[in-house]
Design goal:
The complex is a heterodimer of chains A (about 325) and B (about 350). Chain A contains ten helices and twelve strands. Chain A has about 325 residues and is of the alpha/beta class. In chain A, strand 9 and strand 10 form a beta hairpin. The longest helix of chain A has 18 residues. Chain A is globular and about 70 Å long. The two termini of chain A are about 25 Å apart. By secondary structure, chain B is of the alpha/beta class. In chain B, about 30% of the residues lie in helices and about 20% in strands. Chain B has eleven helices and 13 strands. Chain B has an eight-stranded mixed β-sheet, with helices on both faces. In chain B, strands 1, 2, 4, 5 and 6 form a five-stranded antiparallel β-sheet that branches. In chain B, strand 1 and strand 2 form a beta hairpin. In chain B, helix 6 packs parallel to helix 7. Chain B is globular, with a radius of gyration of 21 Å. The N and C termini of chain B lie far apart (about 40 Å). The chains are: A alpha/beta (about 325), B alpha/beta (about 350).
């Protein structure tokens, strides 16, 4: 990410904490907070894809929702084309939402079962006063065609569609308002591999045709490698490494990135790869470890007292590559 | 060659569909063997029949709506499991053949401690006393790598993480030292770092206990790393089976080939060629309406008349010992038709 001046999406110091463990019946003061997103920053250039990866509970979906203000962030700045999303009022926010849309993971849960595909797609067109009547009909047919569905599907209900078809409808719904920026929250992880490939191809085509900017959230590093220009790796609410995709996959600097990469099964029985099997589970984000949040599981041989006490800052360790590890100069 | 431990022949498990109008032929004539000590990968996408196959082995198919057709045959230790009396079956199920399921969240009983759940099989099958069974449960928790097993034995499932629960499931399955372990997507619900732990654990336990593992998965990466042989299923049938290195080096069924081409790969050369994945066009048909002829022909890039009209049998494509690599595809009889595959 060279010049942030021209970035379409810019996130700075994003924070979202969830209070929990209140007294009975949810009364009283919270006794603890989950630091779901803890000071996250990144930028995405127009027409590019940032892959945001991490395991369950690392906060990647909370980042997605905070950016679109589907949940309110506690602090930080999110700029879309220079406009700060965080401070916008209702009407301006709604106008800006035309330019940023989201596709959810679960194609079963994210479509209203009582609406036909036509109604699902007509809704955003009506809300944003983009089209009604026969004009809307035309646009719906064109949208369906664009995502590879026969316009005849307009009459179908969600339950009549397969997972892949539903995900295509979800994408069509997001595209209906002609956004510039799409948040894709695990868009293919609920799909079978052959269908996953179809949807990934579709997303690549759409990006090229419409010059879309993507924030692609996934836990599958192989999928992210296939789609992303830049990659950010999250662990316990923080970005631990961020780099151009080529650099991250060829020479990861954070031991967590290295471990994640080595844990991905490769469909090649002759693969000779060093396998790092991390011990233990991801700690609870309500009680993150002191010092480096990764230290209890870290396999780095240099791990020492400093890792246990001093949180490492995210710093540049190679051109365009930042990592939060005291020993990033001596990667695993 | 050694005798197979489990011999499945012409297994047909059908279901009456919701409206009672049709029959879903979920598993439709499946045959394969499982040898002692090996790991067999059973691979396919949703709806291909891999889970129904495994449930049929233990006769866990709900009847109705399901039924295993007469003529099906599953031999274990010289007996047909499909004709055993319920009592005899119970002596095998959970004892000599055990199973672990995909969902560690829902497959454990929330109102019993994990210790009780692990001990149950030992009490039922091996007639251990409560005290001995509890000691065995602690031993099992230790075996599957759970820290502080003596404390953890009294915990409830909700007090554990997903990875821990899957370890508990494995402990439950292995408490009677089964000869066969059926693992149905054991790592699908888990994060990759936890998946790596569980796969490593299964590998170690298999070596220690010498059991055969039937690993059901959709993940070709998991299969490549763990299985000795692979059976690929599509539309209720076996479409290809081969030793793992052979299958990945020389996938002969266009479906196997398509599956491999669909997966974005971590070990593939440069990032972001904005390359397209080959994929497979179309989608898996419904089990009540398998296409005639070869069931894959509507999605196959090579299909010709014969594929539409005539269902191919499993043909031998072995380079080594006969029968080790079989493929259900007419291309084997007319290899010149296998041309460069067009991009979808």
């Amino acid at each position: 990410m060279t010049s942030s001046a021209t970035a379409l999406v810019e996130v700075q110091g994003l924070v979202k904490h969830f209070p929990f463990e209140r007294g009975y019946f949810g009364l009283g003061r919270p006794r603890a907070v989950v630091r779901a997103v803890d000071d996250i920053s990144f930028a995405i250039m127009p027409g590019q894809t940032l892959g945001l990866v991490g395991e369950s509970g690392c906060g990647k979906s909370t980042v997605a929702r905070s950016i679109l203000r589907l949940i309110e962030p506690d602090a930080g700045r999110v700029a879309i084309d220079g406009v700060n999303v965080v401070t916008l009022g209702g009407r301006e926010l709604r106008a800006l939402r035309r330019r940023m849309q989201i596709v959810f993971q679960d194609p079963y849960g994210s479509l209203n079962p009582r609406l036909t595909v036509r109604q699902t797609l007509a809704e955003p067109l009506a809300i944003h006063h983009l089209a009604t009547g026969s004009d809307a009909e035309r646009r719906i047919a064109a949208l369906l065609e664009e995502v590879g569905l026969d316009p005849g599907f307009a009459k179908s209900y969600a339950h009549e569609l397969s997972g892949g078809q539903r995900q295509r409808v979800g994408i069509a719904r997001a595209l209906s308002v002609e956004p510039q920026f799409l948040v894709l929250d695990e868009p293919v992880s609920a799909l079978d591999v052959s269908v996953q490939a179809q949807v990934l191809n579709l997303l690549a085509d759409l990006q090229q045709r419409r010059r879309l900017t993507y924030l692609f959230i996934a836990h599958d590093l192989a999928v992210v490698k296939h789609v992303a220009d830049h990659v950010a790796v999250m662990y316990l609410g923080k970005i631990v490494e961020r780099a151009p995709a080529a650099a991250l996959y060829a020479a990861p600097r954070h031991p967590y990135t290295t471990s994640l990469l080595s844990a991905v099964p490769v469909p090649d029985p002759n693969a000779q790869r060093p396998r790092i099997v991390l011990t233990g589970d991801v700690p609870s984000p309500a009680h993150p470890p002191a010092g480096c949040p990764f230290h209890p599981r870290c396999p780095h041989p240099k791990k020492d007292a400093r890792c246990r006490t001093e949180p490492p800052a995210l710093r540049e360790v190679a051109p365009g590559q930042v990592a939060a590890c005291h020993y990033a100069e001596e990667p695993l | 060659m050694t005798e197979p431990l489990l011999r499945i022949r012409d297994l047909k498990t059908y279901f009456v569909t919701e409206h009672g109008s049709g029959t879903a032929r979920a598993v439709d004539g499946v045959s394969f063997d499982l040898y002692p000590g090996e790991t067999l990968g059973l691979v396919g996408e949703s709806g291909c029949g891999k889970t129904v196959t495994s449930l049929s082995v233990l006769r866990l198919i709900p009847e109705p709506p399901g039924h295993i057709r007469p003529g099906s045959f599953i031999e274990f230790a010289g007996r047909n499991l499909l004709t055993l009396a319920p009592r005899e079956l119970r002596a095998i199920r959970g004892n000599q053949i055990a199973m672990i399921f995909q969902e560690p969240m829902t497959s454990l009983n929330p109102v019993f401690t994990v210790g009780d759940q692990i001990a149950e099989a030992a009490i039922v099958h091996q007639r251990l006393s409560r005290r001995a069974a509890r000691a065995r449960a602690i031993e099992m928790l230790k075996l599957v790598g759970i820290p502080d097993p003596a404390q953890r034995v009294d915990h409830y499932p909700h007090q554990m993480s997903g990875g821990m629960r899957q370890r508990v499931m494995i402990a439950m399955a292995l408490v009677c030292h089964p000869k066969v372990l059926i693992a149905d997507e054991p790592t699908t619900a888990l994060d990759v770092t936890i998946q790596a732990q569980i796969l490593e654990l299964l590998e170690r336990l298999q070596a220690e206990l010498g059991m055969a593992v039937m690993l059901i998965t959709h993940d070709l990466g998991v299969v490549a790393g763990t299985a000795d042989r692979v059976v690929v299923m599509y539309a209720g049938q076996v479409v290809e089976q081969a030793p793992t290195p052979e299958l990945f080096a020389r996938p002969l069924h266009p479906y196997t080939d398509g599956l491999l081409a669909s997966v974005p790969r971590l070990d593939a050369p440069p990032v972001r060629a904005r390359g397209r994945l080959h994929g497979i066009p179309g989608q898996v048909p419904a089990a009540s309406e398998w296409p005639g002829g070869c069931r894959f022909h509507p999605r196959c890039p090579y299909a010709w008349d014969r594929c539409r009209d005539e269902e191919p049998p499993l043909l031998d494509a072995s380079t080594g010992e006969p029968g080790t690599h079989t493929v259900r595809c007419w291309l084997l009889t007319e290899p010149q038709r296998r041309t460069a595959r067009p991009l979808p």
